[in-house]
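Students often ask why we bother predicting the structure of a whole assembly rather than each chain alone. The short answer is interfaces. A chain on its own may look different once its partners are present, and contacts between molecules only exist in the joint model. In this exercise we take two input lines together and write out one structure for the complete complex. Read the inputs first and try to guess which parts will touch.
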Amino acid sequence: MKITSREMLDTCRRQYSEALGCQKKQILICGGSGCVAGGSREVLARMKEIMEERGLNVDVVLQHESHEESIGLKHSGCHGFCAQGPLMRIEPMGLLYTKVTVDDCDEIVEKTIVGDEIIDRLVYHDNGVAYPRQADIPFYKKQYRVALEHCGHINAESVEECIAVGGYQSLAKALFEMTPDEIVQTISDSNLRGRGGAGFPTGKKWEQVAALPADPVKYIVCNGDEGDPGAFMDRSVMEGDPHRMIEGMIIAAIAVGATQGYIYVRAEYPLAVERLQKAIDDDMEYGILGDSILGSGKSFYLHISKGAGAFVCGEGSALANSVEGKRGTPRPKPPRLVEKGVFDKPTVLNNVETFANVPVIIDKGADWFKSIGTEGNSGTKAFALTGNIKHTGLIEVPMGTTLREIVFDIGGGVEHGEFKAVQIGGPSGGCLTEQHLDLPLDFDSAKKAGAIIGSGGLVVMGSDTCMVEIARFFMNFTKKESCGKCTTCREGVPRIQAILERITRGQGKMEDLDMMQELADTIKTCSLCGLGKTAPNPVLSTMRYFKDEYIAHVQEKRCPAGVCKDLCIFRINPNKCIGCTKCARNCPVDAITGTLKQPHHIDVDKCIKCGTCKAGCPVHAIEEV
Amino acid sequence: MKTDFKLIDSILERHGCDKTQVIGIMQDVQKEYRYLPEDALLHIADRVGISKAKIYGVATFYENFSLNAKGKYVIKCCNGTACHVRKSDDVQKALWESTGMTPDQHISDDGLFTIERVSCLGACGLAPVCTVDDVVHPSMTPEKMRALIAEIKEAEKA
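Now the answer. The structure tokens for the assembled complex follow.
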């Protein structure tokens, strides 16, 4: 069916939302990558089986017209609370069940679906308090969801359900109530800044492309090449609410006069590719994409371009080369992408989350958007909260929320050990430490502290993380991902990495620190693209805030966190050792001695620090110091 | 396995023999063979009209393309930041040990395994993770890794 007018869209919306209203209960099982890995697909299949056996009227697909009372059962996008997955949300009670397994399904159907009873065992508990309702859980309480508004609340694979909750209404408004100039003006006024990392004003980009003639085409490109290790916000949007992002792209196309678009997605995100493809196909069928969108006479075609595993392709001009089927190396600028982008045509390139913010800005206006966040940093930001933290997951908070609120109130604090630092912005970013806990987090303040918001990966590190080793880890990553075009990045990064390697082995010299500083300055100044320009950041930032750790490695040949194996000695804690002899038997070099049921001892001179004893000790009596 | 040029041609046609689609074409070919056979690569270059050097350049630029045949099971061990902080190095070490492979080996001697060390699988909430033929195994430990490999080897014997 093609929707050929605004009225028809409204009719569809009414029909679908009535059909949705007929579902007296809705079961939303998280279908994000995390929960799928935990078995959420099997849970959904089992729920369907049980309910059908019991003769319940189950809606797996939203019917065009449904008047009977039914129970909706579907996969939604990421609910965010990944550490507690697989998650199941039950509406209209707003219940959230955590760590649901196939074996729980019978009981859930019996007690909660047929009855109205809450199963306490599946409810989230914290400090002895039960939180049956999702909205009450501390993890969700401080969040404010704009881009992720529907993520986890609707069926991610259903355009009908998206329309039912108001999807494509902003597109209709943009098409039938606004001129292209007004759309661009609204986005400019809203102060929306690129969510991909740099925070460039989105309106400005659109303005520049809108002013250029279509010769013969202009492109809208969505950057879904979320390569930062430790980040999965964009994946969650693409998997959980693909239509919202597509709606943002179509609005952009209308605003700047583009007729073709690409979504560039990492090949590592097969589920996102699948859902986006389905969303595009459905939109083509409904006349939301293709010729004469919603009967407006304007057309826009959207294609998926799958990445093939190159981090540098997150950089705009490298991405453009990759879309064209070339090696993904960056181009010298100017000309900028807005003038000569994909196939050398004017191109708007924005990040997934940026596009996901567009529909709500068109709907509620620039002033509403500006009322969220801080001065000059409007709106919210999604973060992936990972690492050494209790509640790993996907969150969205207003710009300017402090790190303390994110790590301790939402994230529940570190999982083991003491809080040490947060790595923000991935390999291009830096670390924020205890002194930054009360810093309002936005583009400008992060930059002042020597870090960047980046795409939004927050990796929390505790006292058991060695900052020198982390710097080495990032340099290792960048070394591998450098495309090789600029000498400074290609040759300079491996030099820094080699120095760090030496330092973590206890072979560093104090001059090395100055040398790294010099190399870092050169790499930053002389590299062409964002990857090279920011590559030394993790080193600079750790040297700035954790100089004492570097000095301990170099001068005292000691790793304060006990991570760098060459600088550690293995020791058996005599108070914990039960004398089971397992370590002595496992030791490949016979460095451990002791009699049965007596504390054992490691001969430091013989020990090769392989860690076998530590891994096998049943009482964790072996320590690295 | 001998390269089936009819199959390659049908993939080429699906992409309109378009040189801008060469990454997509190679992805589809790799889906069939699990790597890019040399003769297939040369054939693609010929048909879409780019030089051998160019297609070799593209194929070797991107991490996902492999010019070597792969083992029956492809195991990807994630070493993204979140996994790294949660000690993925130890998991990786256990993987090499239990398969008897070295880091620079493409395929294990028994032809069963190919190990890939990847930068981020995007399942950071479940760190550390590995995937066996794209099935995600969450919260890995060296012990779980050794058990997983033993299980695969056992299943192969049966």
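Check your guess against this: The CA atoms of residues 71 and 110 of chain B lie 9 Å apart.
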